[in-house]
Amino acid sequence: MFATSTMKANFNLFPEVLFIDGTYSVNKLHMPLYTLLVEDGDGVGRVAAYCFVCNERKCANDAVLKQFSTPYNVSMVNCDC
């Protein structure tokens, strides 16, 4: 996962809802790229982070959310992986 200071600011300004969008097979290893987004007051999606994952199983998705929660200082709910 990676996030710039601008991406972190996007989340801090609009933390109410987090959207996750997956784009499939973006590299030679066919790894999905997840884009974590928030929506600003004008309804425009703003990037909060990017993350490559090895698969799209529940455990990998939970790992993305756990990784995201640390630098953004948010708590996880119902993450049992």
Report on this structure.
30% of the residues lie in helices and 25% in strands. It has 81 residues and is α+β, with helices and mostly antiparallel strands. The chain has one domain. A three-stranded antiparallel beta sheet has the order 1-2-3. A hairpin with a 5-residue loop joins strand 2 and strand 3. It starts with a helix and ends in a 9-residue tail after the last helix.
Number of strands: 3
Approximately how much helix is present in the residues? 25-40%
Order of helices and strands: HEEEH
Give the biggest sheet: 3 strands, antiparallel
Topology of helices and strands:
Elements: H1 5-13, E1 19-23, E2 33-39, E3 45-52, H2 58-72
Antiparallel strand pairs: 1-2, 2-3
What attributes characterize this protein structure?
single chain; 81 residues; 3-stranded antiparallel β-sheet; 2 helices; 3 strands; globular
Brief description of this entry?
This protein has 81 residues and is of the alpha+beta class. The chain has two helices and three strands. Helices cover 30% and strands 25% of the residues.
